[in-house]
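Worked Example 4.2. Read the sequence first, then its structure tokens.
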Amino acid sequence: MTAAPKVPKYYAVRTELERIVDTLEVGDAVPAERDLAERFAVSRETVRQAFHELLVEGRIERRGRGTVVAAPKLVQPLSLLSYTEGAISHGRVPGRLLVTWEDIVGDDELCGELQIARGSTVMHLERVLLADGAKLGLESTFLPWDRFGSFTDTFDPTTSLYAAIREAGVTFGSANERIETVLASPREATLLETTTAMPMLLMHRRSLDVDGRPIEKVRSLYRGDRVAFEAILRE
């Protein structure tokens, strides 16, 4: 008879820690590593490993010198909804912090994807995405300046870009998206108040209007501990 595999100490601690978290409310303090190490008669390093896994999964989060129960992940639909619409649909308060707003000369690849002449001016907008004040993602959007250059004088970067595009008379028709897992650069980790060890979800999107004309190219980086994506599939 084959013996059952031995359960690692950290995993047993993690299981108990999950049970503790399930009894608490969002924002409640989680017992300190030292207290848990004494309770379970293990080293603090063992407890720290269990903490790390729950941090990555978004069950708990660091707040100051302590650890608290985290809010549920923001589940974003894979659709032509804007980030604002997706957040509101889940009862969250969306927000944005402007990082960069500049006009750049598009390289050959970018101009090709936006179907504009080589060397054309492209508007680059980089913003931190918020939900209930928490930093969830970093969005970098590229727009053809000859089509959306007026936004320099009219657009409020703390609001929904998709709403502004629609108000300009442009109707979204389709989008191509690719999602992969990556680690953040030091700059990105700083902007999102996390570490370079935190798994991230990287989304590349290219949106077209109803006539098949490119609207935007977007690179969005989301904290894996705070955001998830879902899609509705039909035959």
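Now turn to a second chain, presented in exactly the same format:
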Amino acid sequence: MNISLVGRHIELSDAIKDHLMHSIDTLTKYHLDLISVNAVASANERKKGVTIEFTINVAGKNTIVITQRDDDLYAAIDIAIDRAQKALRRLHDRLSDHKNEGLNEAKLAASNSIDLHAATEAMEDEIVPAEPILFKPQEVAEILEKLKESGKVFEVFYDIDGKMRVLYKRSDGRFGLY
């Protein structure tokens, strides 16, 4: 990163240069590819104050220009650096949006590793043909004994009269017949 410090109608002392350099170093925390940062401090006698202008060149992105005017040069530098950090943070967040990051890569990986046709077939309900079992009429007592032995909750059967019946275990431990 190239850094240039310029003073127009004002002399930059070592303390001001150190403050500027330290402030500019804080801009690197966003891990953006900063090409150059130009800081121009100028004094204006008519407007009674100082102006600091930061021009930040980010690789592959637009140039960020921050201009701040104040009576005190140190205050102007601090306010301008805060504004620059806010602009860089927004740029960084826009570039590395965590909600969308990796979504396209995940879709690509999923589509490469999974056969979509096989996956859709696996998700469909599978119908297995079975041969019908012919039910002979049974006594309720026989079905009651089977139900007690098997641990099932209910049993469907045809009774002696040829009606389809359901014998089920109730929650109170007794049995019901439908």
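Notes for the reader: The chain has two domains: 2-95, 140-177. Residues 73-95 form the longest helix (23 residues).
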